[in-house]
Amino acid sequence: MLRRTLMTTAALGLGLALTGGAALAAGMDHVKACFVYVGPIGDGGWTYQHHQGALAVQEAFGDKVEVQWQESVPEGADAERVLTQMALGGCNIIFTTSFGYMDPTNAVAAKFPDVKFEHATGFMRNSENVSTYNARFYEGRAVQGTIAGRMTKSNKIGYIASFPIPEVVMGINSYYLHAKKVNPDVELSVVWAYTWFDPAKEADAAKALIDQGVDVIASHTDSTAPLAEAAKTNGAVIGFGQASDMAEYKDGPRVSSIIDNWAPYYVKRVGALLDGSYAQADAWEGIAGGEVGIGEITAAVPAEVKAEAEAMRDAIAAGTYHPFTGPINKQDGSAWLAEGQTAPDGDLLGMDFYVEGITGDIPK
Amino acid sequence: MLRLEKRPTPSKFWLYATPVVAVLLTMIAGGILFGLLGKNPVAVIRTIFWDPLFGEFAFYLRGQLLVKAGPLILIAIGLSLGFRAGIWNIGAEGQYIMGAICGAGVALALYPTESRLVFPLAILAGALGGWAWAMIPAILKTRFNTNEILVSLMLVYVAETILAKASTGFLRNPEGAGFPGSRSFSSYTAASNPELIAGSGLHWGGVAALATGVAAYVLLSRHILGFQIKLAGQAPRAARFHGVNPERLVLLCMGLSGALAGLAGLFEVTGPAGKISIDFNVGYGFTAIIVAFLGRLNPLGIVLAGFLMALTYVGGEMAATNMGLPSAAIQVFQGMLLFFLLGVDVLTNYRIRSALMGAR
Questions:
Q1: Is residue A354 part of a domain?
Q2: Percent of chain B having pLDDT more than 90?
Q3: How close does chain B come to A94, measured CA to CA in Å?
Q4: Is the CB of B322 less than 8 angstroms away from the CB of A89?
Q5: At A115, which CATH number?
Q6: Contacting residues of B for A82, CB less than 8 Å apart
Q7: Does B178 sit within 8 Å of A166, measured CB to CB?
Q8: Which helix (H) or strand (E) holds B72?
Q9: pLDDT digits (tens, 9 = 90+) for A145-198
Q10: CB distance from B199 to chain A under 8 Å?
Q11: What is the domain count for chain A?
Q12: What is the pLDDT of residues A31-67, one digit of tens each?
C-alpha cells in the first residue's frame, strides 16, 4: 500500500503543480474541503454546528470550493479509513471534528503530507500539516453558571458530563465557580454519560439529576434530550442549549445557550489555503473571537439576572475578566490560583481536578 | 389468495437461494430509497458494491474489506455453532470488549517488555476474557435456567461500562496527560498486531478468522461434537436419547463463541483500533449476528457473508462521503439485508400456494 500511496501522492502533487502553477505559496484555484462528523448532522447540537460552518465555507467561496462530509464516523479504526478515503479522493483540507479523531488524524496526516488536516479539540500536531483548533467554551459556562446560581430554587444545580477529559472538567469548574459566586449555598451534581451523542442515555442522566432535586441542568453532550426531559417538568426545571441554540425549547426550559460558531474559523482556514497564506496553527478563540456565542436569554430569567449575565459575557469579550481568576483552590483544599492570578492556558488544557466545593470525584 | 404451506423437508434450493435473493431485493429496495433521497440509485449501488473491489481506490479498499470482515467472520462463526444448537448468544459485543480489555491489560501490564511471548500471552488472555464473560450467561442458564438471550445482551452494557472505566482509569495511558485511552499498541512492538503484508489489510485476526472458518467446517462435518450440535438444534429430544448432554453443550457453545469474540476484540485492539478507548466497540458483535444468518450458519457461507457485509460498510462510507448520503440511509440499507433475508427465508420451510388452486 505504501508504494501505491506514494505513487498516488506523487501523482496528486504533479497534478497540483501542473494546474496550480507555482504550488502552494501562490495559493490554489480550487479547494476540496472535507469534514468528518462524530454524530448525525441532525443532532441539533455539536455536529449540526460544525455542518453550519461547512455550509458557510461553501457560501463564502462558491465555485472555488467543493465541500464534502461524512457523519456518524466512529472514533477509531473506522475514522482512519474514512480519512484515508477522503485524502485519496482529493480532499485538500480535512476537518476532523471530535477529540477521538486525534490519533487517526495524525496517522493519516503522516501519509499525506500534501493534504492539510485540522483537528478540533485535540493537542497532537505530529506533522506539519496538522493544525488544531478549539473554542473557549468555559467562557460560556461562566455565563451559564451565573444564571444557574441565581435561578435555582432548590440550590441544587446539575451538569451532564460526557467524558472526564480536561475540556469537560474545565466547563464543570467554570459553571460551578460562577454559580457559587452569586449563590454561596449552591450544590453541584455531575452525572457522567460517557457519550457525546446518545439521546436515551442523555435523557436518563437528566432524569437522575431531576430525581435528586436539581432544578437547573447544564449539559456537555450533543443532543436536545436533556431539554426534552426538563420540558416534562412543566417549568420546574430549566436548562441551556448546548453547542447549538436549541431555540425550539425557547418557550420551555431553555433559558439561554452556548452556541459554537465554527464558521469564521472554517472560512478563514479554507480562505488561507486558497490565497496561499495557510500555515500550521493552534487556535483557541472564545467569546471575543466570535467562536463562542451566548444565545438569547429568555424572559423566564428576571431582568436583573439577565443584565448580570450579559455583563459577565461582555466583560469576558472585552478581556477585562477571566473566568478563572484567583483566589481559587483545588477540591482538596490546596491552592491553585493566588489572588488576582488568572489561569494559564496550559493549566486549563490539562485540567484534571475539580475546584474547591464540588463534591464527588472525577472518574479515574 | 395466497397461503403458506409447510414443506415436509426444508427446501435445499431456497436454503442457498435465500441470501442471493435477499441481496438482490436489498439492492432494489435500497435503490428506491436512494432514488427518493434524490440520488442516482444505480450510481449509489455501484459505489457500494463495485468501487471498493474494482474502483479507482480498490488497491486501498480491498485491504480494508479484510480488516472489516475479519472480526465479523471470527465472531459469526462462534455464534453460528450455538445458533445451530438453539443456544442464543446475543452478547458477543460484550465478550468482544472483555477480550480486548483482558488481552490489552495483560500486554500493558508487561510494558515495556520486548519479548516474543507478549503477543501470544495477550491472545490467550483475550480468548479467556471473552470466554469468561460468556460463561456468566451459560452458567446462569445451566444452573438457574435463566434466559441466555437476555443475560448475554444485558452484559454488553456492563462490559461497556467496564470499558469506559478501563480507558479513563485502570488502563489509561500514564503518559497521556490525563486524556482517556490506553497506551498505543502501534508503538509497543512486542504486543502489536500489524499488517502482515503491507497493503493487504491482513493481520493475525484475519488469519485467525479464515483458519477458524476451516476448523468450524471440519468440526461440523467430521466431528462428533458437530453432529451433536446439529442434532440438538434440529431434534432436541432425539439428541437427549442420543446421549447429548444439553448443559455441556450450552457451556461449550457459549464458551467457544465467547472465546472467539474475545479473540476478535484482542486482534482489533492491538491492530486496527490500536488502543483501548471509550468508543472502542463499534458493533461487530451485533453485526456478526446478521453475518451468521446471512451465511446460513455455515462456516464457508459466513466467510462470504462477512466479506459482503464489509463491502456494505466500506462501500457505504464511500457512498456517504462522495454522494452526500446521510449515514442513516446506509444503516437502513444494511438493516434491509437482514429484513429481506428473514423474509425470504420463509420459503425454505414453507411454499406459497394459491388458495384457489389448493382448494379441496
A1: no
A2: 54
A3: 12
A4: yes
A5: 3.40.50.2300
A6: 317, 321
A7: yes
A8: helix B58-84
A9: 999 999 999 999 999 998 888 889 999 999 999 999 999 999 999 999 888 888
A10: yes
A11: 2
A12: 999 999 999 998 888 999 999 999 999 999 999 999 9
A214 and A311 together in one domain: yes
The Cα A271–Cα A277 span in angstroms is 8
In angstroms, the Cα distances linking B157 to A75, A162, B94, B328, B344 are 19, 17, 7, 23, 32
Asked if residue A21 is part of any domain, the answer here is no
Within 8 A of A71 by CB-CB distance, chain B residues are: 320, 326-327
Taking only residues 66 to 95 of chain B, the set having a beta carbon closer than 8 angstroms to any beta carbon of chain A reads: 67
pLDDT at residue B355 in the model: 62
DSSP line for A173-224: HHHHHHHHHH-TT-EEEEEE---SS-HHHHHHHHHHHHHTT--EEEE-SSSS
Q: Which residue is closest to B174 within chain A, CA to CA? A: A364
CA distance A7 to chain B (A): 12
Residues A144 and A204 in one domain: yes
Kindly state the average pLDDT of the residues A232-245: 92
Instruction: Provide ipTM, 2 decimals.
Output: 0.78
| Same domain, residue pair A181 and A314 | yes
Chain A interface includes B165 (CB < 8 A): yes
* Pairwise CA distance, residues B322 & B39, whole Å: 11
- Residue A7 within any structural domain of the chain: no
**Residue A123 structural domain:** 27-136+262-285
Cβ distance A89 to B321 less than 8 Å, yes or no, reads: yes
- Distance from the B206 Cα atom to the nearest Cα atom in chain A, whole angstroms: 15
Q: State the pTM of this model.
A: 0.81
The three cell numbers locating residue A284:
483557541
